Structures are given as C-alpha cells and as structure tokens.
Amino acid sequence: MDHRILQTQSHALQFPNTRKPVLQQQETSNNFKDMLIDAQLVKVSKHAKERLQERNITINDKQWQLITEKMVEAKNKGITDSLVVTDNAALLVSTKNHTVVTAMDREEATNKIFTNINGTILINE
Asked: Where along the chain do its domains lie?
C-alpha cells in the first residue's frame, strides 16, 4: 500500500460573467441628492405626530428648518438624544435617527424631568 499523498491539479472556479447595468451619471447624482436631502430632513414619529395634533402645537417651516440645522449641529458634537425647546413646544429628538420622538407644549414641559438625553437645544424664534 502506498502512503504517499497524491497531488492533483486544481483549477480556479470560474463565475459567470455578470455585469451590473451602468447607470447614467445624471440618474446617479439625482438619486444621491434625493437620498442626501431625505437624510437631512427631520422625520416625525407617529407618536410625535399624534402629540402635536392632540396638543395643538404648530411649528412653521422656518422653525423646522432651524430645528433641522441645530439637530445636525448637535449630532456633529456627539449628541444622540436631545431636548429641543422652542417658544411654544418641547420636543424630544433622536439626532442619531434624525427623528422627533415626542412633543409637548411649553406649559406641560415646565413641570417635567427629562431623562436619557445628552444635550439640549434652545431655540428662541
């Protein structure tokens, strides 16, 4: 009996030649722009929408823009969960997810203790 190991030739596996369709430059840049814009927009959770409606809290476009800018600024400073205080509302936001988690009016927020936040954004507008 021969105890030597027999060597066999091995061949590299060949995979089928599949190419991804090439997107036109304009389509790619538009999709990226849309994704970038979506990533920068503040999302409002279902819970927060309900609270805004229940408590008749209105936030105009200018305020939303300012809140968005400040959330980006806070995220860049390492803040993940923040309290945003405006003239008429207090919003708990996740800067990590760019989402408003809940909302209350300023009167209601006066008597509350906020936990699990690591930053506060004050907006006087």
From this structure: 42-122
